[in-house]
Amino acid sequence: MREERAYLVRIVTRQALDRLRVLGRRKESYVGPWLPEPLLTAPDVAEDVELAESVSTAMLLVSETLAPIERAVFVLREVFDLDYEEIAAAVGKSAAAVRQIAHRARGHVAARRPRGVTSPAETRAVIEAFQRAVETGDLQALLDILAPDVVALSDGGGVRHALLRPVVGAAVVARLLTSGWTRRGVDRSFELIQVNGSPGLLVWLNGELDGVLTARVENGRVMGIYHVRNPERLSRAGHETTMSR
């Protein structure tokens, strides 16, 4: 059984590394920000705090800054709790080298990971308030929810209109949301769902799925807004993805 597990870990890890390298080359010519592909997840994923954090949009963005081998070692060690010898066999390096890679990756992630710990219930309440404010175009309500240094990112991949660079600041982001999403003649609606282990929103435009929006919430405020509109990145937004450790 242990040999079968080691074989599966090795095969899956090497396929994932190949995929990461392909994506790395694609990102070099990608139009605008590249956001992680949104995954609809079951509510019980949020109950596993470590798993939910590891698949959150904010954490995936942090892991995107790791080199492929660092990312593989970090996930296998920190999320799946594999020992260094198993990881070494999977990535084709010595256990000593894997220990060094894991230490370096942990330091890199620790310096960039979200600081505040927010409960699923608090996150949901903030997302619901955000939804109401955007739907009604209530600028002041949005300003009350957004952190002063909130960052908004959107991913259209050059296929759909999206921000080509991050937008920073509550006033600018609030005006962008209220002016862009409350135009007359546009039937836009939001559906509260679980995305990447946390509450998020499906964005519908004239009855068609237009995007998926997630947010990073800390201390009762929205610190980051991540809006994926590229149709190619929405392939898993129509069905729930099973996640477990």
Automatic annotation (TrEMBL):
InterPro entries: ECF_Sigma-70_Domain, NTF2-like_dom_sf, RNA_pol_sigma70_r4_t2, RNA_pol_sigma_r3/r4-like, WH-like_DNA-bd_sf. PANTHER family: ECF RNA POLYMERASE SIGMA FACTOR SIGJ (PTHR30173:SF36), SIGMA 19 FACTOR (PTHR30173). The lineage of its organism: Bacteria, Bacillati, Actinomycetota, Actinomycetes, Streptosporangiales. It comes from Actinomadura meridiana. Residues 64-108 form the RNA polymerase sigma factor 70 region 4 type domain. The keyword Transcription regulation applies. This is RNA polymerase sigma-70 factor. Keywords: Sigma factor, Transcription, Transcription regulation. It holds the Pfam family Sigma70_r4_2. Belongs to the sigma-70 factor family. ECF subfamily.
